[in-house]
Design a protein that fits this description.
By secondary structure, this protein is an alpha+beta fold. It has a domain of about 150 residues: Heat Shock Protein 90 (2-Layer Sandwich), CATH 3.30.565.10. The chain has seven helices and seven strands, in the order αααβαββαββααββ. The protein has a five-stranded mixed beta sheet. A two-stranded antiparallel sheet has the order 1-3. α1 packs across α5 and α2 packs across α4. The chain is elongated, with a radius of gyration of 21 Å.
């Protein structure tokens, strides 16, 4: 069973999503925020697993300090080393939380020139946390010398996260492990920049491809069919587009195409 959100790539003109359908701008903004929070919620297990590592290390080093202090003639240098490790691990945990909060707090639409490679790197730790929990290997294939794009950084990162979550769920159905996911950036033309999420999962059937960006259509048992539809909305409001193409020899490639800033 396919487990990608399936929404519409038909050539027929589609009504503009969001405010163009009569939805108030404020409500539309809230919808995007709710969708972003839902995506982050889906990543919560991976983030919790990642946070557990420094917290466990802190507890272990604290217990070691307690045992050392209970011994007569404890070596201050050993205690200092343990306390340094506690500080390091606490900073690591705080950094994970900071990145998660930064990703979740971007509600307002504020467009500014941005480097797509930097947007990917900002979120890669969270992606890798989720991927490790699924036993999936993540790689980056970021092209050099890409022009900036004029975007709302939080919204574009939300699109990429939607693609990542779809790939991870698809790879979960792959027997025998060996799941691979790549985030690739490149310049397909002089006026565009592309960010693609590529996996070696089952891919989509020809029937599914014809409806892959259609709102409310999903093959997931608990899917709303809104993840990729909202991604489509975000891309179009940025003057770009989203799309799907098969990965060879197997798998899927979801991408967002953005116009390069003048």
């Amino acid at each position: 069973m396919l487990i990608y959100d399936e929404l519409d790539m038909k050539s027929d003109p589609q009504p503009e999503p969001g405010p163009a359908l009569g939805v108030p701008a404020v409500l539309h903004g809230r919808l995007l925020h709710v969708s972003r929070m839902a995506t982050i919620g889906e990543m919560a297990a991976g983030v919790a697993h990642e946070l557990n590592q420094p917290l466990t290390a802190i507890a272990n080093y604290a217990q070691a300090c307690s045992r050392l202090l209970a011994r007569p003639g404890a070596d201050p240098a050993v205690l200092q080393q343990a306390l340094t490790e506690i500080t390091t691990q606490a900073a690591r945990a705080a950094d994970i939380i900071r990145r998660l909060r930064a990703l979740a707090s971007r509600q307002q639409s504020e467009r500014a020139p941005a480097d797509v490679n930097a947007l990917v790197r900002e979120m890669i730790d969270l992606v890798e946390s989720d991927a490790r929990l699924h036993g999936v290997n993540v790689s980056l294939e970021l092209a050099d010398g890409l022009p900036p794009v004029l975007v709302d950084a939080g919204q574009i990162q939300h699109v990429i996260l939607n693609f990542v979550r779809n790939s991870l769920e698809a790879l979960a159905s792959r027997s025998g492990g060996g799941g691979r996911l790549a985030i690739r950036t490149w310049r397909p033309s002089a006026v565009d920049v592309e960010v693609a999420v590529i996996d070696n999962g089952p891919g989509l059937t020809s029937e599914a491809i014809s409806r892959v960006f259609d709102p409310f259509f999903s093959t997931k048992e608990s899917g709303t069919g809104m993840g990729l539809a909202i991604s489509n909305t975000i891309a179009r409001t940025h003057g770009g587009s989203v799309g799907y193409r098969p990965n060879q020899p197997s798998g899927a490639c979801f991408y967002i195409l953005l116009p390069a800033a003048a």
